[in-house]
């Protein structure tokens, strides 16, 4: 956010790419991943989100996080 603000831009409407959603390196387990919280915070600020993780090709909604980028 700070880098965008320094450039006179807002997080709202900005495109953000989350790289990595797995909880640990080189696994396909996303339980308890901090990426979900990061995506929630960015989304609440109006960012357009996408993600990439070779071990987790499709993010699934969880009990705590219902909305995830596709």
Please tell me about this protein's structure.
The protein has one domain (12-70). Helix 2 links the parallel strand 1 and strand 2 (48-52). The chain is α+β, with helices and mostly antiparallel strands and 70 residues long. The chain has a two-stranded parallel ribbon with strand order 1-2. The relative contact order is 0.24. The chain contains two helices and two strands.
Characteristic terms for this protein:
70 residues; elongated; alpha+beta; two-stranded parallel ribbon
Radius of gyration, in angstroms, nearest whole number: 13 Å
Secondary-structure element order, as H and E? HEHE
- Order of strands in the sheet with most strands: 1-2
The tally of beta strands, per DSSP, is: 2
Compute the number of structural domains: 1
Beta-strand fraction estimate: 5-15%
Query: Number of helical runs?
Result: 2
Map the helices and strands:
Elements: H1 2-6, E1 15-19, H2 34-44, E2 48-52
Parallel strand pairs: 1-2
Structure summary:
This protein is α+β, with helices and mostly antiparallel strands and 70 residues long. The chain is built from 2 helices and 2 strands; from the N terminus they run αβαβ. α2 links the parallel β1 and β2.
């Amino acid at each position: 956010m700070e880098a965008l603000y320094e450039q006179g831009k807002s997080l709202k409407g900005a495109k953000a790419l989350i790289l990595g959603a797995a909880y640990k390196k080189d696994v396909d387990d996303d339980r308890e991943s901090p990426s979900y919280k990061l995506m929630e915070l960015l989304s609440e600020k109006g960012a357009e989100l996408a993600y990439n993780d070779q071990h987790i090709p499709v993010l699934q909604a969880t009990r705590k996080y219902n909305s995830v980028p596709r």
